[in-house]
Design a protein that fits this description.
By secondary structure, this protein is an alpha+beta fold. It is built from three helices and five strands, in the order E-E-E-E-H-E-H-H. A five-stranded antiparallel beta sheet has the order 4-3-2-1-5, sandwiched between helices. The longest helix has 12 residues. About 25% of the residues are buried.
């Protein structure tokens, strides 16, 4: 899929190449080239927060499915990640999810 990072927005829902479920973008950091998202399967959040490099994100998504809502819990987890100076994955979405679940 060909999207510039500036075209990504919080709440956008995407399908994932080679993986069931979908992701919801929580935050896009244009300066750092990082996309934060949650992973859902059967409309249940399985992973609340994954920060990934834009270059890996863009090669991992299949298509946009719509716009969703972001919960306060999801936003709180991002704040905690920022306070902890959390890292960023440089793997595809599928690789991260398979390693995490």
């Amino acid at each position: 899929m060909s999207l510039e990072i500036k075209d990504l927005n919080s709440g956008q829902i995407f399908s994932i190449i080679g993986l069931e479920g979908k992701i919801v973008i929580l935050k896009v950091d244009i300066k750092e080239q990082v996309v934060h998202f949650s992973y859902l399967k059967s409309n249940k959040i399985l992973i609340y927060h994954i920060p990934i490099s834009y270059k890996k994100f863009i090669i991992s998504i299949e298509g946009i499915l719509g716009i969703g809502k972001i919960t306060n819990k999801q936003l709180l987890i991002i704040k905690e990640w920022e306070i902890d100076n959390g890292g960023v994955w440089d793997l595809t979405i599928k690789e991260v999810i398979e390693m995490t679940l």
